[in-house]
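User: Hey, quick favor. My workstation is busy. Could you predict this chain's structure for me?
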Amino acid sequence: HSSPMGVRNLINDLPDEVIDLLRELDKRTFLWIELGLQTSRDDTAERINRCYPTAVFDQTMGRLRAAGLRTVVHLLFGLPGETEADMLASVDHVAAYHPFGIKLHQLYVLEGTGLARSPADSYALLEKDAYIRLVVDALERLPRDITAPEKHGGIEPRVVLDRLVLTLPGGQPQVLRRVRDMALPTGVRSL
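Assistant: No problem, here it is.
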């Protein structure tokens, strides 16, 4: 195998020929397909101009899984109008497909975007502690072998893990080990 390779955001247009090509590539390298779901709520998806309904994501995930291809799904925490329950429901939606990995991003606002031009009181960005709590809750919902292959919203994994110990009654170390194992890709040593 050569170096690992990721292919991003093939959601709405994935002909059989492309899936066949991806299967061939997967034989030559460690391949994963990254899909930007962001949220499982279609009303939110429409507000953020995701350009496809969740059903299209579901079909794509089913086809990629049937082809034996690894997937990594991106979710975005803190989208306008979403509650904590909505964000965790998106995690559950993704977990049901048992992807290879999940990337949990925190919403931030770029200058010049539609959100930046919105009235400041039309959305509220997640505070760091709320975001860390959501990441910990999300990781706890995922099966052990789903990886979370990078920092979450610029927060080092150590911060998330330390926060978990501080927020659990009695600081149950077995839970810390479970999240730590889930958050690191196979072959990477624990922190």
